[in-house]
Amino acid sequence: MNCEKIKQNISIRSVLESFSLFPVKENRRTAFYFALDRKEKIPSLCVDYSKNSAFDFGTGKSYDVISVVQQIKKYSVSEALKYLSSFNFPAKAEYVTEETQSEISYRILKITEIRHPALIQYLESRKVYEQKECVCEVHYEVDGRKYFGIGFKNGSGGFEIRNKYAKVCLGPKDITLTNNSNNVTNEVAVFEGFFDYLTFRNVQSQLNLACDCLVLNSTAMLFKAEKILKAYRKILLFLDNDENGKSVAVEIQREYDNVEDYSLTYHFFKDLNEWYVAGGCYNKCF
Fold first, then answer.
1. How much is the pLDDT for 28?
2. Which of 85, 92, 200, 230 has the most CB atoms around it within 10 Å of its CB?
3. Quick one: average pLDDT of 68-89?
4. Where is pLDDT greater, at 105 or 153?
5. What is the pLDDT of residues 94-128, one digit of tens each?
6. Co-location of 138 and 180 in the same domain
7. Is the residue at 263 inside a domain?
8. Which residue, 154, 170, 186, sits at the end of a domain?
9. Residue 98 lies in a domain
10. How far is the C-alpha of 29 from the C-alpha of 50, rounded, in Å?
């Protein structure tokens, strides 16, 4: 596939989501993201889904799917093309929201408890099947094609959808806050994704923590958590051990008092779930 075909046939939204980048604001045809090359409080990167391109109002720079990868990964064109070679999504793929339904509609067909063998096997492979009551099985349809996955509901009614092959969001992107009635110490644990949250539930009793839990569902959603975090006496971080996770950890530590970073416990692994799957045990660490 040549450069022009790649620009036309690989969704810029799916490419951004591969880097855990999601819209802060969106309407039927466009969305605003935070800039690719700097930190900012107000999003300035305008993504046009219909044109499959983006424009940064802060720098005046335009992006297509190739230059997005180049900017984020610091790749050459050939390296970016190699990265994009693994994508098989059509230009207007299943990464849709309620605001874009008039162009690309999705329809949730049914929501049940986890029953499909493939989803059970996936939860078991991530060692979180015991927490299956925290998620659901979502069957949905996009442009006449049917899909299913593990669904985790966010605060705006959207669903984070995961299975062995897909990582998408149906509906508006948002954070998820779960409250613990026994949270007498007024603490909150913060996670990037829901698999880390499910993992935490497996080891929570060993840690002797009865805190609330906040799942960002993307580090780009941190801005939505600001008022919530201010209400807690102590913040416990279970973020990823990558550049993005460490950057968010530093930002939270700078903005809030009494923050404890638990990622040191699994510092040889990408995240809490990967550590747990590899045989991690808090009894050995505390």
1. 65
2. 200
3. 86
4. 153
5. 333 333 333 446 789 999 999 999 999 999 999 99
6. no
7. yes
8. 170
9. no
10. 6
pTM, 2 dp: 0.69
The alpha carbon of 276 is separated from its chain's Cα centroid by a whole number of angstroms, namely 19
Say if 99 falls within a structural domain.
no
Domain boundary among 147, 170, 193: 170
Same domain, 109 and 65: no
Per the structure, how many domains does the chain have? 3
pLDDT of residue 143 exceeding 70, the answer is no
Distance CA 50, CA 25 (A): 16
Q: Residue 203 maps to which CATH number?
A: 3.40.1360.10
Residue 100 resides in a domain: no
Each residue of 2-39: pLDDT tens digit? 788 888 888 898 899 888 888 888 776 788 899 999 88
67 lies in which domain range? 3-93
Largest CA distance in the chain: 59
The residue type found at 112 is T
